[in-house]
Predict the structure.
Amino acid sequence: MKLISTKSKFLPIVVLALLLISVLLAFGKAYNTILALGQTPSLWFVLFTLLPAAFGVIIYFLLGKTKGKVGYLEAEVNSLRTALDNSLRTDVKVHSTEEKIAKIDVEQVISQIIPDASLDDMEKFGELMLSRIAKKFDIVQGLFYQKNVGSGIFSFTAGYAFFSETQPVSYIEGDTLPGQVAKNKHLLNLDKVPDGYITVLSGLGKGSPRHLLIIPVVSSSNETVGIIELASFKPFNSQQEELFSALGRKLGELLSSNKPISQD
């Protein structure tokens, strides 16, 4: 069956052989018939009789050429398929490696962000923490809020690159976006923040970051004790979300172990 398969390399040879045999048998039969009648075969008879053989040779070469092109295309397709498979395997390996590296480095990065300083001056502590975050992740503005354990109000504690003629508004759980994050205890990653929602001033002018990350600072007793807001001109990816969620938990444990804010 392989000899007559359309993919068989012997197909052109088989077709040519069968054609030549048929032509020769037909030519021999006609030639003998003419001789038996006492006539001499003419040149035209020979030419028209052998014409199918010429067509057979042409078909043979055409089939061979087509077969060669098909073989070349199949080789190209197989080569592309192999390259794609290798690329996908490489991407999977790289992605897996990045995930492992991210999981290993989370604690190290957090230790580099949280200042090893006294919590007596939370403004200074918060400014240093936000400054470290900004340097590592291209943050253009950061705010740190703490919760008053008596009133339940989240008040502005420290800022990075923050400028305003008025103090940032305070809020309670469920009130405003940061308040909702405090209530849900889940990080919120906002893309395409409206123009004017956040303003960053510099010597070159002012701009409006389009990406905002709101991070709940959750204590070991699962209570939100603070909020961190980070603004950037670049989007926050999933690995950064994982990192900052862990940072919020770690910072919450640290703050809950300290003396609570006065209940004014």
Remarks:
- The beta strands are 141-147, 154-160, 188-190, 200-202, 205-207, 211-218, 224-232.
